[in-house]
Structure formats: structure tokens, C-alpha cells
Amino acid sequence: MHAILDDIQPVNFHAGEQARRYLDTLTKPPGSLGALETLAIQLSAITGELKPSVIPPAVIVFAADHGVAAEGVSAFPQAVTAQMVANFAQGGAAVNVFARQIGARVEVVDVGVASDITAAGVVNAKVSRGTANMAIEDAMQPEQAAEAINAGVVAVERAIKAGAKCLIVGEMGIANTTASSAMLAVLTGEPVASLVGAGTGIDPQQLTLKVAVIERAIAARNADSQAPLEVLTKLGGLEIAAMTGAYLAAAAHRLPAIVDGFIATVAALTACRMCPAVRGYLIFGHRSQEPGHDVALRALDAKPLLDMGMRLGEGSGAALAYPLLQAATAMMGEMATFTDAGVSDKAAL
Ligand SMILES: O=C(O)c1ccc[n+]([C@@H]2O[C@H](COP(=O)([O-])O)[C@@H](O)[C@H]2O)c1
Ligand SMILES: Cc1cc2nc[nH]c2cc1C
């Protein structure tokens, strides 16, 4: 993990500025393509290229279980994690559908599902059969967190070897909004009640219980808010650790990564706290309905591309946002300049 941190360089500011200047030579009033122009500048800064390509994208879904599910904090039973892994492997989940629309392969990685996974095509990187219950003991041991982070790094490096030019990372893990909320409360210092939400759809009574479980876990684990790896280890999850590793690896390899919803953004925040230069490589796909997502986005000074009222996870919101990256790069690659097209530039007054 130290090796990957050493490999991360800030994005190329000069390449971004070159893109900014080039955008103003294209046949449109300066700035008229708004956030698409900001995106094009960021993609140039990430890749160091004036006309980068984001084709093909790769989708990686990390799956794991959470000991804290035993506290009754989710609307669904833990078995759903493994059942959804089988669904991903068969191509039937929402992220599979959206991945097909954008021409992305979906790789599913088991980093810690509680049961045996028999579905064909699932990458076995199981660190343990779920985390421990953070209300009772540390969710992970430091070696386990490191192994899960490394599984994320390895998965990204595999995607890059297969040619990926853009990364979409998703997750599946019953009770992972509880783990993510606990991490976020410690990392930002925000009150638990201000960021906890319904996750898969718990009722108000269960929500009260979820807040209490998280507050109890935070007090008992006593993680140092300035030590992101400790926060991840004591309160996080194996798939959250793998996603953290994936964002670190994307940055190390200068690959744009589209961040999905709440859980993904907490992992992204963890990666950025470990290495602030990661932030420049991250593009935020959508705003999740989970209330903590806004807290996490604010902590990263991030403005998501889409606001669809979604709260699914799996990388679904990031996959939906991908065509905007394609549009940004096509704009840079294919639009005529004022000179090319013989269009009069802005009148000099
Ligand atoms: O990505 C999000 O913003 C998001 C918000 C709420 C729920 N989820 C998904 O729902 C599961 C976690 O919800 P829960 O209620 O079991 O903590 C997990 O599999 C996530 O992928 C995802
Ligand atoms: C069915 C189902 C699908 C999911 N995908 C991501 N999290 C999920 C949670 C549930 C419950």
C-alpha cells in the first residue's frame, strides 16, 4: 500500500490549462458548454492529453458483508449480498444493464462475502467472511484492511491491463451504509443523526436504532479522526477498503475514476485523506438520496454530475454519468475551431 501511495502524483495542471485555452478556440461562445468544459479540463489534467479517450470504461463491483448487520440496521437480510453477487455474475442487476449500455465489462470481486460464492466469473479475493460487528469489536484487523485495499489495487491494475481508460467502481454489501455513516461521522466530525439515512429502506424506528448503534460503535472503537486507515479498519468494511484501494490505484495510474453514491464517496474521502492528490482524479457521477452523501461531497468540495434521486449503489449512478465524460472528450476531439470552420470569433470591441 505504501508503494501505491508513493506512485501518486497530482494531476497535470498545465495540461488542464492547455485544454481550457483550446476550449475557447472551438465554435461556441466561451464557457457555453458549462460543466462539460470543466469535465474536459479535468480529463486533460488527469491524462496529460489535450484530446484524451475514456473508451473503454471498466466497471468493478466489490462485495462484502458486515458483522454489524446482526444489530438489525438494514431493511434486507445479509444473505442478499451473496444473492446479488450471483445476480451480477448472471448480468441481471441494474449495473449490468447500464454497463451494457456504455460498453463496459463488469467484474465482480468478492472481498468478504459471508458465504461461499459459487457463481462462475466472480473474482475470489475473500479476506474474511464479513467484518466483525463494530458495535462489539473492531470491524477489521489492520492486516485485513491492508489485504482488502490491495485487492482493490490489483483489480484496477487488471482492468488497466485489459485496456480500461475510465474506472467505475461499485459496491454491494448489506449494512454498508451503517459502516460508511460511522466512518463519515468520525472523518468529518459531523453528528451521526445528521448523516444517517434509510439505506435500503428502513422504517423510522429502525433508523433510531441505526443511529444508536453507530454512536455506540464510534464511542467504543475510539478511532483517531486524523488517521483515515484506522477509521477504515475499526469502522469500515472490506468492500469499502477495496474501493479505497481502487481510487488510490486509479490516481497512481492517471486514470479517471467516476465515484458512485454514498458508500463510494466515503471510500473516496478515505483515499483523499490518505493522499490528497487523489482528489484530482475523481469525477463525481451522481448525488445519492442518502443524506450523508451531501456531507461526504461537501468534505471533498465535489459537485456531482447527475441528480436522479437514486440510492442503489453497485456503481449504477457512476455508469449513468459515464456518457457525459464521453461527450466531453468527443467535444475536444471532434469539434471544429473558429479557424477550421471559418466562423467569426467574438467581435473585438
Ligand atoms: O450508493 C448509495 O448511495 C446507496 C445508498 C443506499 C443503499 N445502497 C446500497 O444498499 C446496500 C446498503 O444498504 P443498507 O441499508 O443495507 O445499509 C448496499 O448494497 C449499497 O450498495 C447504496
Ligand atoms: C436487492 C438489492 C440490490 C442492491 N444493490 C445494491 N445494494 C442492494 C441492496 C438490495 C437489497
From TrEMBL:
Xref: CDD domains: DMB-PRT_CobT
EC number: 2.4.2.21
Any Gene Ontology biological process: cobalamin biosynthetic process
UniProt keyword list: Cobalamin biosynthesis, Glycosyltransferase, Transferase
Any Pfam family: DBI_PRT
Enzyme superclass (EC): transferase
PANTHER family: NICOTINATE-NUCLEOTIDE--DIMETHYLBENZIMIDAZOLE PHOSPHORIBOSYLTRANSFERASE (PTHR43463)
Family from the record: Belongs to the CobT family.
Protein name (record): Nicotinate-nucleotide--dimethylbenzimidazole phosphoribosyltransferase
Gene: cobT
